[in-house]
Structure to design on (122 residues):
């Protein structure tokens, strides 16, 4: 089994910063892309940022220049540094990872964390 455990959410004033972490554990052979998604009340879940195993990144237009995604492959951990936070960034943030659990099979699966609440007050 694989688990993704997120931490770092909370309440912050507009203009402030937060850093989210997500650690993957369990039966892991390799991790491909890792990413952060968010879902605000009444809205669909959307991609915030993603990073490949080689370090290539992509960001939602709404967070470019404010958020930075990074990963520590040795720790199976992905981070999201969020600066200049805005009230519209308020959402539950979910970690996602595409993980291959066995060297015997090429296939991989997507796993999700439980979510962490980020609230930005104006």
């Amino acid at each position: 089994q694989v688990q993704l455990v997120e931490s770092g959410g909370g309440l912050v004033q507009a203009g402030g910063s937060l850093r989210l972490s997500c650690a993957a554990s369990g039966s892991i052979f390799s991790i491909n892309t890792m990413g952060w998604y968010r879902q605000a009340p009444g809205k669909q879940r959307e991609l915030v940022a993603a990073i490949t195993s080689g370090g290539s990144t992509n960001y939602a237009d709404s967070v470019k220049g404010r958020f930075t995604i990074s990963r520590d492959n040795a720790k199976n951990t992905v981070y999201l540094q969020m600066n200049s936070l805005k009230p519209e960034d308020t959402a539950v943030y979910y970690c996602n990872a595409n993980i291959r659990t066995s060297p015997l099979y090429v296939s991989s699966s997507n796993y999700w964390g439980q979510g962490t609440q980020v609230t930005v007050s104006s």
Observations:
- The chain has a mean pLDDT of 97.
- Residues 58 and 64 are 9 Å apart (CA to CA).
- The chain has no helices and eleven strands.
- The first strand starts at residue 2 and ends at 7.
